[in-house]
Here is the input.
Amino acid sequence: MAGSMSEAKPTGALRRLYDYCLYLMSKPGGVWVLFWVAVVESSVFPIPPDVFLMALAIAVPAKAFRFALICTVGSVLGGMLGYGMGYFFMELVGHRVIAFYGMAEQYLQVQALYQQYDAWAVGAAGFTPLPYKLFTLTAGAFELNFATFCLASLISRGARFFMVAAFIYYFGPAIRGFIERYFNLLTIIFLVLLIGGFVAFKTLL
Here is the structure.
């Protein structure tokens, strides 16, 4: 998520920001808060949208998948924004964002991942606890194919958010603690299954 689910437990200023976002979501039209959090999280915002998605889905389980769709659309649009920032303004803005989050060392590592795995790197970052904002910015900076980037983002972010929605829809609010505790493991397992499915499909063809 653009970080791990450990970010779902902010402290200090982040905690106040988190509480304020939850407060706004309790108001009419609060679902737009989820959308905009998903947009800005993909490039600059520090708190992953999953925690807000869970809050809304728990409040209205019948709309969990609708909330997941809104979150996915917002996140992919935010990924495009991050790509644009990296493509056009990496020196002016992108490097400052990366430095702010202490990810300067990982910047060159991501470049190597793109050279070796191309869209798989974006897909892994979009679904797992890898820092997604780092990958959106660097995708633009390293001029990864934009269509490939968008497709990988759509698949990975959609799978991630709909997985969270499905857990809450079928198991109810009690599953929230389980998701927060084992989210990293769940995403890794799901990613392995997803890649295995693609490999099997390609082999069968």
Remarks:
- Residues 109 and 115 are 10 Å apart (CA to CA).
- The chain has one domain: 5-204.
